[in-house]
Amino acid sequence: MIHLQDIRKVFNAGKPNEFVAIEGVNLAIDSHGAIALKGPSGSGKTTLLSILGCMARPTSGRITLQEREITSLPERFLTEIRRETFGFIFQQFNLIKGITVLENVMLPAYPNAENHASLKKRAMDLLDLLNIGGKALAKVEWLSGGEAQRTAIARALINNPTIIIADEPTAHLDTHLSAEFMEIMRQLKQEGKTILLASHDPIVYESKVIDRIVEMRDGKVVSAGGGP
Amino acid sequence: MGLMFMDAVVSQRLDREFVRERRAIVRALTLTDLCLFTEARYTRHPSMTELHTPFQDHPMALEHFPSGSIMAVPARLYPPAQQ
Amino acid sequence: MKALEKQRNILDFTLSSLGRRKGKNIALVMVYTFVIFLLASVLFFTHSLKKEAALILQDAPAMTVQRLVAGRQDMIPMHYIDSIRQIKGVQSVVPRLWGYYYDALSGANYTLMVNADLNDRAGEIIIGNGVSWRSAPGKRNNQGLQKNDIIPFKTYDGTVLGLKVKGLLPFASELVTADLILVSETDFRKIFAIANDQATDLVLQVRNAKELPTIAAKITQIHPDTRPILRQEILRTYDAVFDWRGGVILMVLAGVFFAFIILAWDKATGLSAEEKREIGILKAIGWETSDILLMKFWEGAAVSLMAFFMGIFLAYLHVFLASSILFAPVLKGWSVLYPHFRLTPYINAYQIATLFFLTVIPYTVATIVPSWRSATIDPDSVMRM
Ligand SMILES: Nc1ncnc2c1ncn2[C@@H]1O[C@H](COP(=O)(O)OP(=O)(O)O)[C@@H](O)[C@H]1O
Ligand SMILES: [Mg+2]
Question: Which residues in C lie closer than 8 A to residue B37 (C-beta atoms)?
Answer without folding.
Answer: 331, 333, 335, 338
